[in-house]
Amino acid sequence: MKISFGAKFVSPKSGTLAIGVEEGGHLPPRAREADTATDGMISRALAGNRFNGKKSESLVLVAPSGLDCARIILFGVGKSMEEADWLSLGFRLLRAVRATGDKQLTVQVDCGGEDLATAAAQVAEGVKLGAYEFDRYFTTKKADKKPNVTGVSVQVEDAAAARKAFKPRDAVVDGVYLTRDVVTEPPNVLYPETFAQKCKELEALGLKVEILNEKKMAKLGMGALLGVGQGSIRESFLVTMRWDGGKKNQAPVAFVGKGVTFDTGGISLKPGPGMEEMKWDMGGAGTVIGLMKALAGRKAKVNAVGILGLVENMPDGNAQRPGDVVTSMSGQTIEIHNTDAEGRLVLADALWYTQERFKPTAIVDLATLTGAMIIALGHEYAGMFSNDDTLSENLEAAGKASGEPVWRLPLGDAYDKLLTSECADMKNIGGRAAGSITAAQFLQRFIKDTPWAHLDIAGMAWSSKQRALSPKGATGYGVRLLDRFVQDSYES
After folding, report:
1. How far apart are CA 120 and CA 92, in angstroms?
2. Alpha carbon distance 312, 297 (integer Å)
3. Catalytic annotation, residues
4. Which residue blocks in 15-158 are alpha helix, DSSP H?
5. What is the pLDDT of residues 412-448, one digit of tens each?
6. In 321-333, which positions are buried (b, 16+ CB within 10 angstroms) versus exposed (e)?
7. Which of 35, 104, 127, 252 has an alpha carbon within 20 to 30 A of 409's alpha carbon?
8. What is the pLDDT of residues 155-166, one digit of tens each?
9. Which pTM was predicted?
10. Following CA atoms 93, 97, 102, 104 in sequence, which dihedral angle do they give, to the nearest 10 degrees?
11. Of the candidates 476, 447, 448, which has an alpha carbon nearest to the alpha carbon of residue 460?
């Protein structure tokens, strides 16, 4: 699908034409021109129904006389539109046109705000977010079920400015697409080695990629991460991706992702029904690879590092057992009480390695870590835990700006004591109560003085229904959030 920008307001010869209407049914210039061309069809339609031009309202006119296009979609812009409104508009228009079978969509942006060039870029971003499909394994899909929109034209007075504003946004959406891809891939296709190879491919964008195998991790003392993967025939890996777009020798900001490419639960086996969804237990690592592609793609002026702990959690005869004690890279020992609490073990070594190797200015880790987070926050917010108020505030602001919100939850000594073990420095679970908090407390034991935030994205990485800016399935959550965080906190 090609997205283009045009400065001339021209009625398309086919497909769907989308035109804005202000609140109260007021027609801006382009709508008035279309109304004249259709001999008052738009005015009559407004008079004959409840469409009033409010945000999110729309009205479809089929086979408009006097125009060559198949249909007109009138969309309300209210009194003014914000970024989230323009993004949502682009997403909704694309999905609506797909349902009609039209191949072309033309969107005219001439009302709804002062900076219409930026608004046009945001519409295009929303369109691209809505255009995502993962259909590579369908062999009998009927033609009318396949994506049909081949071209989208966004018409705005300053098309050059819109094109310039869209370029970095386009790169970020490419990162979102990569995240959605890796989260959706079946586990026999995406496993630690092939995931690591996908990271390596990003060297073409200028990233520096390093892959540590099990032998190298064992030499570093990563007993916590290696213990998770020892039941799988697939080798475990730790991947680092570096983007050096900032000042030389400036400490990077670090992003660490849990990459359990399939999670059976190990010896603490999960129930069978629904286990197929555990292919997305690498959602945190999926977000990090997408973010690093986005930063490299738009040439972000920042030094950033992405670290992925890649393992597969399987229950064979060599698998880790409840009751085992492992030694982490930090030297701290961990008694395993539940092998299905494996993600925190992967992150424990990845976080320690990140601090020791890169001395980052801040660390944000992401993981589909606990089902308890879904019970607490549903599918509306990612849970955030942090040792630093400024970092938390910046992430919260970026979440609001990007439409990918986070909600901060507490940490404290009372929760930390729940991790007390009788035979090691700690155990890997704290019990049923406050399960997401005790998981975060566990991770904090592997953080020194670095500002750190943990995002539990268990309820956000995958959706059983279409969401505001993502189709059903892998959402790509976190890429736009963290890209905005980098822009506002490190590049501004």
Report:
1. 14
2. 29
3. 270, 344
4. 29-37, 41-47, 83-100, 116-130
5. 999 999 999 999 999 999 999 999 999 999 999 999 9
6. eeebebbbbbebb
7. 252
8. 999 999 999 999
9. 0.97
10. 10
11. 476
